[in-house]
Amino acid sequence: MRLVLAVLAVPAFMASCSDDPLPQNYYTFTGEMVSDYLQNRSEEYSDFIAILQRSGLYGMMATYGSYTCLAPNNSAVQLYLKERGMTSVDQLSKEDCDTLAWNHIIDEKAYFTTDLSDGNIPSANMNGRYLTFSSDSDAMNSNNVTYYINQSCRLVVRDDSVENGVVHTLDHVIVPQSFYLPDLLAEDSTVSLFYEALMLTGMDDSLKQYIDETYTCGEDSVNQDMSITTGGATYTMRYVGTRMKRYTAFVEKDEVYAAAGINTLDDLKAYAKQVYDEMYPEDAGLYDEDWTDRRNPLNRFVSYHLLPYYGAYNDWTVYGDVKTTCAKTDLIDCTDWYTTMLSHTLMKMSTPSEGLFINRKGVGAAYTVRGTRVLAPSEVGDVDQQALNGIYHYIDEILTYNPTTRDVVFNDRIRINAVTLSPEFMNCGARGNTERATGFKVVEGWDFHGRTPTMTLRKRDVWMVTYADCVDMVGQFDVTFKLHPVPKAGSYEVRFAYGWGAMRGKVQIYFGTDPDGLLPMGLPIDLTIWPADPSIGWVADTGDEETDRAMDKAMHNRGYMKDMDSWAQGGQNILREQGAKLRKILVTENMSPDEDYYVRIKLVIDNPQAEFPINYFELVPKSIYAGVEAEDTH
Fold first, then answer.
1. Angle of the 74-83 helix axis to the 42-55 helix axis, nearest 10
2. Helix count (H) and strand count (E) of the chain?
3. Interatomic CA distance for residues 613 and 375, integer angstroms
4. Which end of the chain, N or C, is surrounded by fewer C-beta atoms within 10 Å?
């Protein structure tokens, strides 16, 4: 029966969070809410019912909405109590019951296993923590697939549909880690060598922040839905209530080092020195014994494994329906670029069908540089890799920032999605949110110059532009932010993508290395001019390659380009074929990997309703924009 219910319940994933019943569930457990489901099986869930009642959440489970209830059975609760030296839920404090209840309820959406893949469940639980979903084959049960939450809580019953959501039954209580990331790594004996290096270099101290106490935001805008209209559509929005400092570590197991002949910390020091003396010859031999100096080879080795972004396995690019519907995977691997904690360095994340890779070159199986593969949650066994302030992932090869990475892999069109321009967009869980837009009154590392526009990260859907993410500003905006660094010195073309719109306004864009003295990049750009205007020169492709290349060149000479042909908005509308989608060339100049580069975007007309979406920027080396072969259209 449950298999049938799972199929019937699939449309629930497309429903928005509302106070209406889920109509597609009327023919399953008619009349049962989550509370009824538990109460009607009280012999199995009486302990969890008691916890929900003491927390005050039991009543909410009887209301209309869209909930995911991860219900531990009585055996699971009794095991948890035994581990705490207790015999009854009555011995739990009210605070204990609150935390336990919040850990097991997701109140934004009903998530069925048919909607999930390896990685985090897209919405946080009511405790603000993200839960990892994974699967494995059960050798003791005819190799049937089994599913887990946080690697160790098995779904013994799954996908039981009720009118206000779904119930999954767990054989263990969910107890998220309370460790900071370095302390969680210390608990994992399989990564002892990396942990030794982390401690020796002092980089553990850089991973011990969690809540930014200086951040404030009005409670009314955090806990209540607001509406915002942009791009011709109206979205539900909430502002970020807490600024999180979160981190990701990509870590080799000791066995990976051993396969490369690295068995001791001294071996790892020597290996790091060999790699980073070549990468930074000006520093060779100068800081070898000063382990905490950021120019020390071992320090550089460790730092390149660390990112100031929180990213589960499925967070680094797009996945699921968005990827399969919109990405032209015969033309591109879905790819995003991130800054690491090694100063002025990048990390390229790619998701071909083979999995998640770091610093890969090529498309799909036709790669020229394989890159380092990140192990999926289903491959790591009974290991909870989620810390209080971050997450770590196992990788299958030694990760370094080396000449091949810099000169080959990064000799590429570096397409920077706007949501990677500040860690805050990912650390608060805004990226990938399919339920509502996320508002920001301030953004870490961004200067709003005293202005207060409405700024949001749109909710994700297949109709969103490239990689289904976009940062919107509405109002009298004026904002400065730092771009990602370039990998090596040379001439680069800097571009940004935008969509035409009657409400877009006119903006002046500035660029340079001094955030207080940026230079204007030409005249203000009127975003309301239709791209077919002669000043831009957008003309639809003819199908004749030579003719289309000539039209592209003429458009490029005017400072514009068509958008890419590797993404289909809504699965049907190729961006390159849409006259409203453009790339604007900001500047072509020599850039250095040792410099910081900033962009300022200022609305130069008086229009409090003006809209401006920031989708992506491109940093394109001369070898690509003026190479022997013409730049591709992907």
1. 60
2. 16, 35
3. 34
4. N
- For the chain, report the end-to-end CA distance as a whole number of angstroms: 46
CB contact at 8 A, 528 and 579: no
Which one-letter amino acid corresponds to residue 108? E
Q: Measuring CA to CA, which residue among 573, 578, 582, 585 is closest to residue 615?
A: 582
Give me the phi and psi of 600, to 5 degrees please. -120, 130
Measured CA angle at 105 (ends 99, 108), to 5 deg: 130
Residue 414, strand partner residues: 619
Give pLDDT tens digits for 379-415.
998 899 999 999 999 999 999 999 999 999 999 999 9
Closest by CA position to 475, among listed 381, 590, 608: 608
How many whole angstroms from its chain centre is CA 342? Answer: 20
Give residue-wise pLDDT tens across range 330-341: 999 999 999 999
Number of neighbouring beta carbons within 10 Å of residue 368:
10
Question: Which candidate, 355, 379, 374, 377, places its Cα nearest to that of 365?
Answer: 355
**Residue 107: closest CA among 59, 48, 150:** 59
Backbone angles phi, psi at 357, to 5 degrees: -130, 145
Q: Quick check: 472 and 440 in contact, CB under 8 A?
A: no
511 burial class (0-12, 13-18, 19+ CB within 10 angstroms)? middle
Q: What are phi and psi of 255, to 5 degrees?
A: -70, -30
- What are the start-end ranges of the H helices in 201-264? 219-223, 254-259
Residue matched to tokens 């990998």: 487
Angle at alpha carbon of residue 197, lines to 194 and 200, rounded to 5°: 155
User: In Å, what is the CA distance from 631 to each residue of 47, 304, 330, 585?
Assistant: 63, 30, 17, 14
Could you tell me if 194 and 185 are in contact, meaning their C-beta atoms sit under 8 angstroms apart?
Answer: yes
Instruction: Sheet with 490-499: list strands edge to edge.
Output: 414-417, 616-621, 490-499, 581-591, 560-562
Q: Is 519 exposed, middle or buried (0-12, 13-18, 19+ CB in 10 A)?
A: exposed
Task: State how beta strands 67-72 and 165-170 pair.
Answer: parallel
Q: Exposed e or buried b for every residue in 583-618, given b needs 16+ CB within 10 A?
A: bbbbbeeebebeeebbbbbbbeeeeeebbbbbbbbb
Structure confidence by residue, pLDDT tens digits, 288-326: 999 999 999 999 999 999 999 999 999 999 988 899 999
Copy the structure tokens of residue 5.
């219910």
> Residue 457: which of 128, 127, 235, 242 has the closest Cα?
235
Structural domains of the chain in order of their starting residue, each with its CATH number: 2-170 (2.30.180.10), 182-208+245-409 (2.30.180.10), 414-625 (2.60.120.260)
In three-state secondary structure terms, 162 is strand
Rounded to whole angstroms, how far apart are CA atoms 55 and 96? 9
